[in-house]
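Q: How would the structure tokens look for this protein?
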Amino acid sequence: MPLNLADTVGYAAAVLTTVAFFPQVLKSWRTRDLSGVSLTMYGLFTAGVALWLSYGVLLGTWPIIIANGVTLALASVVLILKMKHR
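A: Here is the predicted structure in token form.
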């Protein structure tokens, strides 16, 4: 099944915005230094991503589901590390 333009743009956006989290997760995991990470910001962001994931599931829109599923996992790692290493 060929992708339409909207899905192609959605998948491209999903890849870029999701991949952007890998450097933060890797640095946080390796150094355990999260002093520059705001707990409030990451808490709100993670909740927002969970809502976007829910929205994607409700619409059945795979670019939104995939991107926000992976982003939620990555953001959750940083959030958990931040709470653990305060």
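The two ends are 48 Å apart (CA to CA).

The first helix runs from residue 5 to 19.

Upvote if useful.
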